[in-house]
Design goal:
This protein is α/β, with parallel strands linked by helices. It is built from five helices and six strands; from the N terminus they run βαβαβαβαββα. A hairpin with a 2-residue loop joins β5 and β6.
Length: 169
């Protein structure tokens, strides 16, 4: 059920994205979700201007978000991992209070789409998106299927439009 965009976006706009994997165990070699996220962005004409794997620690997450959202070559910061309810899942807790505007539709739609794939387990996801320092920030679960779902169904169809909205004066 793909609807046509009410206002088509300009073609050939390449955005700079930061991909941050939040994990206590993943390495560059084992980070399938971070690699997939970069591949999908690249194949859609966008660039990964920063890729990091950081520990699931609140202060480290906040520090990276602060630093990345000050960079002019980054339009969107996409976190993956740490959105569940386990004690070590702190991504949501770290960034939610920093967001200046929350895009509640992102989390709602993500959980709705997830429910269709994994059933009621979708209620445990604390995926969130919003704006911080005029940058888009997305926080996705760490599973590769969740990353693929969020990026293909929600982020990519709206990424250019949302960035252009943020650039308006």
């Amino acid at each position: 059920m793909h609807k046509q965009n009410p206002h088509p976006d300009p073609e050939n706009i390449s955005l700079g994205c930061a991909v941050i994997t939040v994990s206590d165990t993943r390495t560059v070699e084992t980070d399938k979700s971070g690699q997939l996220l970069q591949e999908i962005l690249r194949s859609s004409g966008h660039s990964t201007t920063q890729y990091l794997i950081i520990k699931d620690e609140k202060l480290a997450i906040v520090a990276q978000m602060e630093a990345l959202c000050q960079r002019e070559d980054i339009d969107a910061v996409i976190f993956n991992g740490g959105t569940g309810i386990a004690p070590r899942d702190t991504t949501y807790d770290a960034i939610e209070h920093l967001l200046e505007k929350i895009l509640p539709g992102f989390g709602e739609l993500f959980r709705w789409l997830s429910y269709q794939e994994i059933g009621s387990r979708a209620i445990a996801s604390r995926a969130v998106a919003g704006i911080y320092k005029s940058k888009l920030v997305f926080s996705l679960p760490g599973s590769t299927n969740a990353v693929k779902l969020a990026v293909e169904k929600l982020i990519l169809p709206e990424l250019v439009h949302l960035v252009l909205q943020l650039r308006k004066n």
